[in-house]
Amino acid sequence: MTALARPGCRFVAILFTLIGVGACREQEGPGAKWQVWPDAPIRFIVPFAPGGPADSIARLVGDNMGAYLGQPVIIDNRAGSGGNIGTALAAKAAADGYTVLVTTSAFAVNVSLFEDPGYDAGKDFIPTALLATQPNAILVNASLPAKTLADLFALAKTQKLGFATPGNGTTPHLTGEQVFRAHGKLDMVAVHFKGAAPAVVAIASGQPPVGAAAISTPLPYIRTGRLRALAVSSARRIAALPDVPTLAEAGIADVEDYTWVGLFLPAGTPPAIVQRLNEAANRAIQSPDVRARLDALVFEPVGGTPQAFAGHVRDEIAKWGKIVREGHLR
Description:
Blueprint: H1 7-18, E1 42-46, H2 53-69, E2 73-77, H3 84-91, E3 99-104, H4 106-113, E4 125-141, H5 149-156, E5 162-165, H6 171-183, E6 189-192, H7 196-204, E7 210-214, H8 219-223, E8 227-232, E9 258-266, H9 271-286, H10 288-296, E10 300-301, H11 306-326
Parallel strand pairs: 1-2, 1-3, 5-6
Antiparallel strand pairs: 3-9, 4-7, 4-8, 4-9, 4-10
């Protein structure tokens, strides 16, 4: 009989679960400490509004992972401050495997962009699984008389334009900063929204008529003709939009950016849980049904070990830190 099977301990376990503290798992000895994980629903904190890349991937992968782990995955959107509010909340969660942060590359950007993002990327989290990546796109409202990036640059020199972003510190924001301000020498102000979905809706309504976003959210608007993609930030053209040039083809050779989505656990989470969650994530993104839906959303599945993801996060922090410093961004 396990500790959680005993009536008295079951009551204590339920009580402690409600206040976010593990209980009774210790009483069976070191070998059985976390063997019952997960025995309750798992919360995925998404620090952005519904409809964006992190939210879409969290829901898609979460369903598959929940079925594999035998517990439901609950999506908890906590948007605000470019992802900082939800990320800080996840950093303070109990390190018991029941709270998982599902975020984007904004995680690596914000440590340089904000004086105090509310979390320490190196100390507060364990990078657990890199799920998928996709390029960003420069977008305009279809009514705007700009068919190419060069057209947009010329137009922006004759009238005041702002550009919509999914949030301060997101990679689409910094892609836009590099394209418009660093390369185009344009006085275009970033207009930040609480996620990709509201930013794309704003561009589609012309308020403002220009923006930058990871490609999955605006794709339906591009296909219906409400938005026009002028360039993508990938090394090669993407199959979903074969007629849209890369930034390099559009004349900006040194900007190659991607929005990525990954899983993080609070620091102190037992290694066995980190490994089990990583295993579930890798299994999910390799399943045929999930891969098909990732393809439809123009996401490239990645996967790999927690150690490889940790190295990727370190590289991203260094890359985006340099861009933030050189652009004098805050």
